[in-house]
Each structure stands twice: as structure tokens, then as C-alpha cells.
UniProtKB/TrEMBL annotation:
This is Outer dense fiber protein 3. GO terms for cellular component: cytoskeleton. Coiled coil: none annotated. PANTHER family: BOREALIN N-TERMINAL DOMAIN-CONTAINING PROTEIN-RELATED, SHIPPO-1-RELATED. It holds the Pfam family SHIPPO-rpt. Residues 1-22 are annotated as: Disordered. Residues 1-11 have a biased composition (Basic residues).
């Protein structure tokens, strides 16, 4: 007996009074990748693989050699600089001086002379030849809407103010609302029902 509880016969059958097969039939779990419940959705599973074993023909030196940070995949990256070195060796040769050449005028040219421009008076036929002046030619206009070679910009003209609805208009002389005839509503709207006798 526990407290106010007393043993009594139950009013109806309960499961504890009947025998069952026990945990013989188990429901597959919903966690994990193997033996998963086929009626439930299974999330993707990822596996961690170990490191691959080194190849037999690998002959890399490993981390024993230190690569400087200035060495990139395109080569060594250094700032532009000038090298300081000694003067180059110059071979001294005996060359002729200015007094070794003769500057006397020769009797005839041994080489071709370059073209020279000479100054002379204009020929009489050319001097008396009449030529047209600047006013002879007429060029097309470059300013305005109708031009031949240039693109004309938009032109705006100034006109006087209209007399209608102006500041000097006398509004007392304009027609009022009673000056226009009254239009029947049946002409432009749905006609109302009418009765005849």
C-alpha cells in the first residue's frame, strides 16, 4: 500500500496484463547513414579521408629548403635598381686631327653636291600673271541652320506675346457661362425613362 492507494481490480483490460513479443521487432533509426529508416528522408553524409601515402618515386627535398618571400611563380620580385660598376675600358686609337685635312678649293667636284636653294628675282611672266584675290571665292556659311559642312545647333526664335490671355486683356468683354446654349443631357449620357400620355 502506498499512501491512499489500495490494490484493486482495474475496470478494464490494460496492456500490462497481456504478454507481448518484447523488443523482438525493432524500428530502424533515423540517424546515421547505415541502417537508416527507409520511410524517412536521409541527409547527405560526408566522410573524412586520411592523407594519401607518399609516392614511391617522389624525390622532393621537403621543407628543409627555405624559399624567400620575394620569389614568386613568375620569378624573383625585386624593386628596380641601378647597378654601380666601373667605367668601361676604351681602346685609344690614333685618329687624324683637324690639320691633317686640306681645305683648299678643288678644281672640280669629286662628290655630288646636296640640293641648294638660291635667291633670284622673279621672272617677268610670273610677276605680271594676274591671280585671283581672296574676295574672288565664296565659302558656304558656317553659322545658321542651313549650313553645308557643319552641324547646326538648335535655333530658338523670339516671338511677341499673344493678345489672348495676356495681361492687357479685358476679361469683362469675354463671354460668360450664360452666353453658351444649354445642351440636353440625353445627347451625351444615358437617357432617363420618359412617360407619355
Amino acid at each position: 500500500w502506498v499512501g491512499t492507494w489500495r490494490p484493486h481490480r482495474p475496470r478494464g483490460p490494460i496492456m500490462a496484463q497481456f504478454t507481448s513479443p518484447g523488443p523482438k521487432y525493432s524500428v530502424p533509426g533515423t540517424t546515421g547513414h547505415l541502417a537508416h529508416d527507409p520511410t524517412k528522408a536521409r541527409a547527405p553524409a560526408y566522410t573524412f579521408q586520411g592523407a594519401k601515402p607518399p609516392l614511391a618515386e617522389s624525390c622532393s627535398p621537403g621543407p628543409r629548403y627555405y624559399v624567400r618571400p620575394s620569389v614568386t611563380r613568375d620569378g624573383k620580385h625585386v624593386a628596380p635598381a641601378h647597378h654601380i660598376c666601373g667605367l668601361p675600358k676604351i681602346k685609344t686609337e690614333v685618329t687624324p686631327g683637324p690639320s691633317d685635312y686640306s681645305i683648299e678649293k678643288a678644281n672640280r667636284h669629286r662628290y655630288r653636291c646636296p640640293p641648294e636653294q638660291s635667291m633670284a628675282f622673279r621672272h617677268k611672266a610670273v610677276r605680271t600673271d594676274p591671280s585671283p584675290g581672296p574676295a574672288t571665292y565664296t565659302l558656304p556659311r558656317l553659322v545658321g541652320p542651313n549650313t553645308a559642312y557643319t552641324r547646326a545647333s538648335p535655333c530658338y526664335s523670339m516671338a511677341g506675346k499673344s493678345k489672348a490671355s495676356g495681361f492687357a486683356e479685358d476679361l469683362s468683354k469675354t463671354p460668360g457661362p450664360a452666353a453658351f446654349p444649354k445642351v440636353d443631357l440625353d445627347l451625351y449620357k444615358k437617357r432617363a425613362p420618359t412617360y407619355v400620355m
